[in-house]
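Marked as duplicate of an earlier ticket. Keeping the data here for the record.
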Amino acid sequence: MFSDLEIARRAKLRPIWEVAEELGLRRDELVLYGDYKAKVKLSAIAERRDVPQGKYIVVTAITPTPLGEGKTVTAIGLAQALRRLGKRAIVCIRQPSMGPVFGIKGGATGGGYAQVVPMDEINLHFTGDMHAVSIAHNLACAFLDNHLKRGNALDIDVNRIYLRRVVDLCDRWALEDIVIGLGGGYVRRSGFDISAASELMAILALAVDLRDLRERIGRMVVAFSRSGKPITCEDLKVAGAMAALMRDALMPNLVQTLEGGPAFVHAGPFANIAHGNSSVVADMLALRLGEYVVTEAGFGTDMGFEKLADIKCRVLGRGPDAAVVVATVRALKVHSGRFRVRPGRPLPRELLQEDPEAVAAGAANLEKHIENVLSFGIPVVVAINRFPEDHPSEIQVIVDKAIAAGASAVAESRVWEKGGEGGLELAEAVMKAAEVGGDFRYLYPLDLPLEEKIRTIARRMYGAADVEFSRRAQRELAHYQELGWGKLPVCMAKTHLSLSHDPALVGRPRGFVLPVREVRPAIGAGFLYPICGEIRTIPGLPTHPAGEGIDIDPDGTIRGLF
């Protein structure tokens, strides 16, 4: 079997303008980045505002193990399969952060024969959007520290500065907690976040046009004054310059799948910190160009899917027609609590042995995720991402448990191995579910008090018995209510490795109390995000980072990406 990079290199790519033309996009609506990448001008959305929208399919998953369960692969493979069935299908996914690319996860363009390409370029600099986010964010930091140095006319409380610099690397050990200003500025404690955790990345993913982008950046809260007044990028007089740096980044990026189908890869907010979904503008355009739009929500239904429904869909103005929940035999075995997997280490030998009882024990996790999707009133199709070591008896357990829990259908997916051909069964099931549709509804109304929004998510999505707010969180929620932010949605920041706040609690935890230690404002993005338990905003590198294997040949060919 060839590596992902070798498979991608063997693909015969179509010129990107041919992919665009097939969608009905004109050449003058593209900004070309070579032969195989393009940005699409925002005017293309406005010109098609009255075109009927296609079906909207969201791919989500059970609670992932540290190895991941193949959600991106499934989303890409499903779009390839729909295209094989003669449908105009488009996949919309997040763009990768280079931190995980060089860390433990590797790339984020799918795998096997279900990839978006050019794989190496997308995983590295791509069209420069991540750099635009990083430099615009750090420009605000520079303006803030310059303001402190020049007399602090806004009376900023240095103990309530939320803005930290960003870098698109997993550099936790050096940068998470630092002292800045030793070169002659205002000496204070600060740190770095990864670029994907910047509020600007969330803004990029949620803004609907340039005016909206500019206004959101202006509303971005960087600190509070000593009297409790929010200090914004507009107050620092930096919002305009930030918007200028972000202007081109707002245009969605068009690439293609291995089978030549269209793919929008745009914006990359993390789902355990931000809302974990690709851009609204990409979906807005795709829904008017395609019959089926397949998008991916980060991590499990408790994370990216809930945030898609309660945050992204409020901006988009519509909900999904159907959802796909990706499950694997090995992950459900892990959720039985009988096995332990560690990133970078071989799978335990006993995990690969036939054990339908372990699958049944771990299936409580799958049942909860099906329940979560049904809470929003849309049908669920379970996709079993097949591995060679899976046994028929184990697959049958998943089928039985999923149907009993309310799934419309269960389909095996072999898209990693066979591309679109391996997803035909899944595509047929998804088309049927989307045709039946549902009655989409939000989990909570916006006029619900902030504490009750948090409790609703904790109880209904995670299975918590209650929520425990720290004194700090209580003060912050009261202050935000006074500032008029009480009707904003909430974006929960917690571990993705458990339905709870504790990554050690696998399966379907019950009766736990969710701790909320603080609540941060993301007013430009349009939400507040509670910090639940221990959650970090910049990852660290493992003992042997993926970057150790990345190099170039004398002719400049990159190797070692996965």
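See parent ticket for discussion. The longest helix spans residues 129-149.
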